[in-house]
Amino acid sequence: MIDRLLPDEETPCRKQRYLKQDRSIRNDGVLKMRQSQTLIPTMREIPADAETKSHQLLLRAGFIRQTASGIYTFLPLGKRVLKKVEEIVRQEMDAAGAVEMLMPSLQQAELWQESGRWYTYGPELMRLKDRHDREFALGPTHEEVVTSIVRDEIKSYKRFPLIVYQIQTKFRDEKRPRFGLLRGREFIMKDAYSFHSNTQSLDEVYDRIFQAYSNIFRRLGLNFRAVIADSGAMGGKDTHEFMVLSEIGEDTIAYSDSSDYAANIEMAPVVSTYEKPDEPLKERQKVSTPNAKTIEEVSKLLKVEETRCIKTLLFKVDDKYVLVLVRGDHEVNDVKVKNYFQASVVELASPEEVKSVLGCPIGSLGPVEVKEGIQVIADHAVQAIVNGVCGANEDGWHFVNVNPERDFQVTAYTDLRFIQEGDPSPDGKGTIRFAKGIEVGHVFKLGTRYSEAMGAYYLDENGKSQPMIMGCYGIGVSRTVSAVAEQFNDEKGFIWPKQIAPFDVHLIAVNTKDEVQRELAEQLYQSLQKERYEVLFDDRPERAGVKFADADLIGLPVRVTVGKKASEGIVEVKVRKTQETFEVPASDIVSQLASIFERL
To answer: What is the reported pTM?
Structure first.
């Protein structure tokens, strides 16, 4: 549920605190930055391999550069944005009672073997050996390492709760890195871990971190939602993802059109009911269906609705094969299959495996006369099918007039499909709609999944040994930079929120050969820094059009231009967000900026 907090909620006192904190982030020391002396390699053309707006602009505006597939260098502007996002994260994590530490990226295989994830995490885990042939992994996350540290250092319930966090580079060998910083093989992450002696303490800290995350993403100005999620390879239960709403998001959010219910589509339960047609059962028949492999093709050939077809898929659940049945117009949700069996690994069987196990191609699979030892489970909708159609486990043949229980047996009927738009909302209010989202944060209640596996025990108040209860909380920091970039831009370039803009002011001397312009620009450069503004001074001997185009592309909150009216002591001010442009006396620039930043 997302009724814990909506993104636009903010109290006056919290707003004041944010303003003070954001100001301290911008002005932590005066920085002298002349554009002629830094590295801001802007580009005019859109890079051919950049698919998303954020990726295109981060490259074009000189914030990042790719060094290998899914691996990026943060150039000076990108590093400054990254640093400011990190500082907001630190402020809210510290306020939530967490303490910062730093753990190694290089993790010994033995720890992962203790937890069992060495064998189940998958090919995304980057594994390597040292010169002594010892196995290591480049850490994608740090549950194993932090659990080993705490189990060795803490023995008493009196030391709980404990919350630790770090901001560090992580590694995942993504099969298909894409969208720039949104899905890379090396990235910056804030990961936190909490340790408790009871579930009530875990619940309290979980809610506290949940609130901290909401504060972070609100302070960044993001349009986000917190949604019910799946824990995946992390283990545990009771998890929420923080999703930034975006059309390029790889995750689908299922939300109610009449309430605040929201969940990742993988986790949204289906509460639809199905009425069984009142018609007599017909005799089952085997019919030829040459070249009809998909539900759509079979439905068209036999002139039956897809809702009468039974879609049959073979899954490998840990070390066993299971047939999963859903109605023809539905899709199997493998997360629900995994959760039903409480399995570690669930994979769709390959065509070769299907042929070996059932003796037929995928397009002819069905539940009738299945080999002994193959368990069959079905979605609730299958139970209501009368005189349906399914594969005959023989290439080019299907059965018609198939009826559950009469023609095949099902071990269990349960919720196994993806929810669809138009389905009833699980909370009983309204119907389901879909939106796309970018996952930027995730909070988990791990329970004792790691502590029991790795022997992390403490002595309770009665002197009895108990497993530590854990929580885990992650934010993709570099991914968040990209999510902000995706939401804050226009056709000219970035429009950075003031709290994380790389600089406050872009000061431009139109003609550096003009002594009056140059001197006035230098005076403003010094005076604005004394007022604790971060200023990027474009002192390059470039044409005015180039400088203005770069300024719009980089997207700092305010542009101050020293041009032809410098001799009159007049400068031009442009607000990037509103495109508002006006002239002011140079002597009034400080008060004008104060007024502008108060409104932004």
So the answer is: 0.83
Q: Which residue has the tokens 């994979």?
A: 347
Whole-angstrom distance, CA of residue 59 vs CA of residue 65: 6
Are 415 and 202 spatial neighbours (Cβ–Cβ below 8 Å)?
A: no
Separation in Å, CA 419 to CA 75, 242, 266, 574? 43, 20, 8, 48
318 and 362 part of one domain: yes
| Residues whose CB is less than 8 angstroms from the CB of residue 138 and which lie 6 or more positions away in sequence, other chains included | 105, 106, 107, 126, 128, 171
pLDDT tens string 92-141: 999 999 999 999 999 999 999 999 999 889 899 999 999 999 999 999 99
Whether residues 143 and 88 fall in one domain: yes
- Assess whether 194 and 138 both reside in one domain: yes
Which residues span the domain enclosing 300? 285-414
Query: Where does a domain end: 414, 430, 452?
Result: 414
Structure confidence by residue, pLDDT tens digits, 515-573: 999 999 999 999 999 999 999 999 999 999 999 999 999 999 999 999 999 999 999 99
Give the CA distances from residue 575 to residues 129, 223, 545, in Å, rounded to whole numbers and listed in that order: 54, 22, 18
Question: In this predicted model, what pLDDT tens digit does every residue of 244-293 receive, in sequence order?
Answer: 999 998 889 999 999 989 999 998 999 999 999 999 999 999 999 999 99
Q: Is residue 26 situated within a structural domain?
A: no
Question: Which H or E run contains 453?
Answer: helix 449-454
